[in-house]
Each structure stands twice: as C-alpha cells, then as structure tokens.
C-alpha cells in the first residue's frame, strides 16, 4: 500500500466568525429564473470585491460561503463561455478560458484541419459552445458529463440530436469529475471508463496501455504511436482539497499502473491528459518540484512535487495569465490565503486566482542512472535499464520518508 497523506497545501485551517451587519446576497442564474435552484449560485454581498476568504467574517457571510461551496459541488464548476456577461468581471480578458481549452485540444491533433483522431471528455461545461466547436472540427469522440441533473439532461438531449442527425460519436452522462480520481477507501474501485468515450464500442477498441520506453528507442517503438490519440479530459474542481486529492490519486494510480499492480486505471487508454485550472496553492505545489525559485516552500512539498514531476509533464497553458473565480460558472468559492503569499506574489502566483495547466504522464522516466522500461526485451540491451516494479515503488517510499525530514537534517546520518 502506498503511503497515506495528501499532496499539496493543507486546506483545513479554520476561519473565525464575528457578528457584523448582514450583507445582502447576489444570485447568479443561467436562466434568470430564481426558481431554478440548480442553476443559481449564492454569494455574499461583500465577496465579489474579495480575492481570498478573510480570517474573520460575519456569521451571515460564513453561511453564504458554505452555500457557495455546496452549490459549486452540487452543480459542478465550469467555464463561462465567450458570450456570457457578468457585472463583477474585473477584466474582459478573464472571460475566455473556453478559448484556452479549445486551443489546447487542437494542439494535441496531428492534423490542422480535423480532430478525428481525438477523444475528448468535457466535465461541467454547462453549455454546448465548446462541444459545437469540436464537432465542427469532426472530433473523433466526444463525451459530455455533468454533475447536475438539469444540465446532464440538456447535454443528453443535445447528444441524442447529434447522433440522429449527424451520426456523431457523442454521448452524455451524469457523474462527478472526481469519480475519475478515487482516493482513500475508493482507491482501486471500478473506473467509469465509459465517461471517456462518446461511443461505448470504442472502449475496447482504444485499449492502449501506457508503457515506459527508453529514450533511444522511442523513435522506432510502435507501442507509443497511439499516445497522441489518448483521451483528453477537461474539468475543474471547486475547492483546493479536491484538487490535492486529484493530484494524489494521479500519482498513486500511475505508479500502480507502471508497476503492473493494477490494470483498472485511466492509463489503460494511453497517456491520458488532464486539462484543468488549479488554485494558487496547488499550482505552487506543482511548480516547486521543478523551479528552484519556489525553494522557500516546505521540504515535504518539494519532495512530493519532485516525484510528481518525475512521472508527469506539467505544462502551463498560459504562464503569464491567471483567471479570476468569476471566469467560471458557478464562481469558484472564495479560498483561504496561500502560505508564503508575499513570496509567491513575487513569482506571479496570486491568492484567489486559478491557473490553467495540462497534466500528462511521461513515457520516458529516468531515476538516477537507470531508465525505467516496461518492455522486457529492452532490459537485455543495457545494465542501465530496469523494470519499474523493481525500483519505482521503493524510490517513492524513500522520497516520502526523506521529505518528512527538516531541511537541516543530515539525511545520510539519519538513514544509517
């Protein structure tokens, strides 16, 4: 069993409440109807001007914030489409995470005209704008997943019309984004792979287990030819704790897959890519393992991040741009201030903003002088190649153990 403990910053620090005058609430509604509770998001009147959740808030605002979190979890956070308008939007440039997602999906295709080789799963988009743009480019497979029953039914109607009129590989489901990333007691449970494809017949056809290859052999090894066509998953989690759980699940699942301890993983379908928006605390966590400027973060965070970056490509979709919480619908709930806030601000990481990233497993992994390879025939070619099951899990445990030591600890003497 892999070591327990969440990745990233802790999001459990408490907030104190004090009595002040109640502030009015503001309701965001997709349809404009106050009767449609599932499409409404309630936010405290003072909250639109805030970037982070204050340490001390009124009891009324505390209740409103709790409602905001519950609403975001029950409806599912999605991007605001380009036609949406909000009087609380600080800058118009924050309106367009939708275009960023679409451009990223296009980059994955080897063709500049068609997306026919791609399988895309969109979670909680709440509108068909991105779906229509992908279908216009003849995307190979499209899956629309919504947390809310209301939005799920709309997507099912849209998918049904597309199948009947245009014979597209498209389907819609009701599920949560975190169902793909089990953690705790749910870790190792049956994976809902149908969510990845717009046609259930494609599930068996697209089996393409992720394998590790030597760098020298990657140009001629046909086992990775289908990696470009591996599914792309787009989704957003509303609170930092859920993001940390997703990152932890991704790391553990990939290790279990590479070491052949489990076949029930996302990576049975290749190098699956996750496109998401992370809070400042979890974005800083991913960066600190590969950027020395984040060395002020804790030892354990940097070790965990280093291990994650050893196995995954983490790409900033637009490193100089962050998105406010009102770039999403419902708005992302207010978050607590990030530790080392002033130092992170100097690195252009701001509390209260969301950062777009693409996370994709590597197919070439080196640990020290050793190359991890899944193909046993390559093991005979060099003494510097080793099976992942012989090294990776031990190295992961060692990294976790060393990460718990303080920066001043002499590691060699402690290990002896």
Write the layout of secondary structure elements.
Elements: E1 16-18, E2 25-29, E3 40-44, E4 56-58, H1 59-75, E5 78-79, H2 97-107, E6 119-123, H3 129-136, E7 141-146, H4 149-166, E8 170-174, H5 202-205, E9 232-234, H6 240-258, E10 273-279, H7 280-288, H8 299-311, E11 312-316, E12 328-329, H9 341-346, E13 354-361, E14 365-367, E15 370-372, H10 376-379, E16 385-386, H11 388-403, H12 411-415
Parallel strand pairs: 1-4, 6-7, 6-9, 7-8, 9-10, 15-16
Antiparallel strand pairs: 2-3, 5-12, 10-13, 11-13, 14-15
Question: What features would you describe in this structure?
Answer:
- This is DUF4806 domain-containing protein.
- The protein has 416 residues and is α/β, with parallel strands linked by helices.
- The protein has two domains: 16-74, no CATH class; 78-367, Vaccinia Virus protein VP39 (Rossmann fold).
- The protein is 31% helix and 16% strand.
- The protein is built from twelve helices and 16 strands.
- α4 (149-166) links the parallel β7 and β8.
- α7 (280-288) crosses α8 (299-311) and α8 (299-311) packs antiparallel against α11.
- It starts with 15 loop residues before the first strand and ends with a helix.
- Residues 9-46, 85-95 and 218-224 have low confidence and may be disordered.
Task: Tag the structure with descriptive keywords.
DUF4806 domain-containing protein; 2 domains; globular; Rossmann fold; alpha/beta; 12 helices; seven-stranded mixed sheet; 416 residues; 16 strands
Briefly summarize what is shown.
With 416 residues, the chain is of the alpha/beta class. It contains twelve helices and 16 strands. It has two domains: 16-74, no CATH class; 78-367, Rossmann fold, CATH 3.40.50.
């Amino acid at each position: 069993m892999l070591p327990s403990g969440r990745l990233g910053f802790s999001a459990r620090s408490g907030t104190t409440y004090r009595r002040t005058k109640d502030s009015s609430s503001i309701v965001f509604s997709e349809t404009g109807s106050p009767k449609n509770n599932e499409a409404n998001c309630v936010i405290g009147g003072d909250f639109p001007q805030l970037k982070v959740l204050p340490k001390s808030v009124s009891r009324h605002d505390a209740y409103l914030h709790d409602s905001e979190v519950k609403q975001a979890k029950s409806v599912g956070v999605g991007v605001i489409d380009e036609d949406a308008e909000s009087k609380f939007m600080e800058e118009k440039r924050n309106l367009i995470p939708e275009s960023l997602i679409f451009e990223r999906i296009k980059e994955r295709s080897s063709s500049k005209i068609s997306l026919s080789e791609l399988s895309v799963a969109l979670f909680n988009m709440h509108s068909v704008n991105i779906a229509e743009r992908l279908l216009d480019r003849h995307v190979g497979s499209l899956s629309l997943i919504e947390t809310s029953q209301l939005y799920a039914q709309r997507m099912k109607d849209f998918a049904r019309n597309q199948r009947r009129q245009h014979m597209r590989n498209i389907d819609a489901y009701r599920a949560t984004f975190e169902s793909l990333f089990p953690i705790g007691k749910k870790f190792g449970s049956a994976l809902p792979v149908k969510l990845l494809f717009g046609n259930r017949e494609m599930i068996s056809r697209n089996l393409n287990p992720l394998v590790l290859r030597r760098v020298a052999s990657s140009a001629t090894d046909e086992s990775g030819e289908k990696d470009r066509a591996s599914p792309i998953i787009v989704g957003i989690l509303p609170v930092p704790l859920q993001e940390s759980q997703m990152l932890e699940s991704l790391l553990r699942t990939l290790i279990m897959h590479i070491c052949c301890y489990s076949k029930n993983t996302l990576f049975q379908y290749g190098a699956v890519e996750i496109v998401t928006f992370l809070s400042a605390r979890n974005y800083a966590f991913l960066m600190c393992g590969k950027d020395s400027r984040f060395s002020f973060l804790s030892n354990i965070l940097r070790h965990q991040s280093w291990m994650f970056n050893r196995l995954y490509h983490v790409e900033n979709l637009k490193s100089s741009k962050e998105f406010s919480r009102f770039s999403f619908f419902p708005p992302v709930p207010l978050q607590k201030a990030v530790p080392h806030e002033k130092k992170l601000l100097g690195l252009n990481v701001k509390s209260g903003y969301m950062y777009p990233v693409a996370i994709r497993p590597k197919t070439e992994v080196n640990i020290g002088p050793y190359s991890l390879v899944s193909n046993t025939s390559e093991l005979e070619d060099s003494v510097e190649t080793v099976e992942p099951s012989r090294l990776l899990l031990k190295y992961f445990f060692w990294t976790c153990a060393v990460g718990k030591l303080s920066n001043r600890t002499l590691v060699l003497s402690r290990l002896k």
